[in-house]
Amino acid sequence: MSKDKVDIFDTTLRDGEQVPGCKLDAEQKLVIAERLDELGVDIIEAGFPISSPGDFNSVNEIAKLVKNAAVCGLTRAVRKDIEVAAEALKPAKKPRIHTGIGTSDSHIRHKFNSDRESIIERAVAAVSYAKSFVEDVEFYAEDAGRTDNEFLARVCEAVVKAGATVLNIPDTTGYCLPEEYGAKIRYLKENVTGVHKATLSCHCHNDLGLATANSIAGVVNGARQIECTINGIGERAGNTSLEEVVMILRQHPTLGLDTNINSKLLYDTSRMVSEKMGMIVQPNKAIVGANAFAHSSGIHQDGVIKNRETYEIIDPADVGVNESSIVLTARSGRAALAYRAKLVGYELTKLQLDEVYQEFLKFADRKKEILDSDIHEIIEATELDIESVS
Ligand code: KIV
Ligand code: ZN
């Protein structure tokens, strides 16, 4: 079955970098941008050029460096922002300006002290102005998750008419349920005149832990771009995690959707971003957490040793992890011990294994995890005459 392509818009360097205390310097941003390009993302949101001279320079340097992906700069619906972003993006092979404004009643009333008609006028003016600098203009309707669908459709229709090539529908506060977010995308797909001229984009925050589910609901209902970050980093509870959406689409071919991402680089990219931002990846994080392919209970270990697919739905090699790990703890069984002993050079007979296992349990009760070096010690403690062949 031929698959529809979903564009991956990476915002690690913009929305992701808004994590308190995790600022990247210009050099680190360049290294990450180069890796994102290699990973196969379609668009790199490199920063918010008007926000500081440092951000302007980073966007400008990334625009010079990136070979394949489009490079994008964020703006408010403000002429000066757009001019500065256009200037920063000048060297890019594929420049994109990302402009927009809040569309929920709460934003219109409290943030802008304005009304719906004036917001549409500002949105159109911003897109038209951005269009005078670059062909590729993405419009974001901030807080679209809490914007009523009818008004949101009117905004989208007006900006598509003004030339927007991408319609970003952010669930800025991470409030939506997957059904609700999916229905919003479907509503826009069915009710915005001219919507076929633009790509609908999902930009979901994770305040209720639903960012990934909402993004998937979005593409199932017709969106063809997902905005996400490596490790799901971002302000508050973060953004949609790139590695999760990429692997969900890959592991579910019946959805008929795929991305250009080279998944074998996912693990390494995750470590790189984690290290540069000084932000650890939680061990149980899907796809890239240290425990994502580690098995510690005896029943699971026995199953995985017999056939990896018993307890794993992803081949670790597909995301750049060398192999599943069998962690030896007091809950491990003989199969796991024999497997790990073999890896360090001991071929144990059944009788030997019985004896080594009893010694192992004594060790495991004292230690949280048994390392390779402990295995040598355990075998020596049995006083059996077993030679390591490694
Ligand atoms: O979450 C959001 O609404 C945003 C926009 C600025 C795109 O990050
Ligand atoms: Zn955001």
Automatic annotation (TrEMBL):
<keyword id="KW-0464">Manganese</keyword>
<dbReference type="Pfam" id="PF22617">
    <property type="entry name" value="HCS_D2"/>
</dbReference>
<dbReference type="InterPro" id="IPR002034">
    <property type="entry name" value="AIPM/Hcit_synth_CS"/>
</dbReference>
<dbReference type="GO" id="GO:0003852">
    <property type="term" value="F:2-isopropylmalate synthase activity"/>
</dbReference>
<dbReference type="Pfam" id="PF00682">
    <property type="entry name" value="HMGL-like"/>
</dbReference>
<dbReference type="InterPro" id="IPR054691">
    <property type="entry name" value="LeuA/HCS_post-cat"/>
</dbReference>
<comment type="similarity">
    <text>Belongs to the alpha-IPM synthase/homocitrate synthase family. LeuA type 1 subfamily.</text>
</comment>
<keyword id="KW-0100">Branched-chain amino acid biosynthesis</keyword>
<dbReference type="InterPro" id="IPR013785">
    <property type="entry name" value="Aldolase_TIM"/>
</dbReference>
<keyword id="KW-0432">Leucine biosynthesis</keyword>
<dbReference type="InterPro" id="IPR000891">
    <property type="entry name" value="PYR_CT"/>
</dbReference>
<keyword id="KW-0012">Acyltransferase</keyword>
<feature type="domain" description="Pyruvate carboxyltransferase">
    <location>
        <begin position="6"/>
        <end position="267"/>
    </location>
</feature>
<keyword id="KW-0028">Amino-acid biosynthesis</keyword>
<protein>
    <recommendedName>
        <fullName>2-isopropylmalate synthase</fullName>
        <ecNumber>2.3.3.13</ecNumber>
    </recommendedName>
</protein>
<dbReference type="GO" id="GO:0009098">
    <property type="term" value="P:L-leucine biosynthetic process"/>
</dbReference>
<keyword id="KW-0808">Transferase</keyword>
<comment type="pathway">
    <text>Amino-acid biosynthesis; L-leucine biosynthesis; L-leucine from 3-methyl-2-oxobutanoate: step 1/4.</text>
</comment>
<dbReference type="InterPro" id="IPR050073">
    <property type="entry name" value="2-IPM_HCS-like"/>
</dbReference>
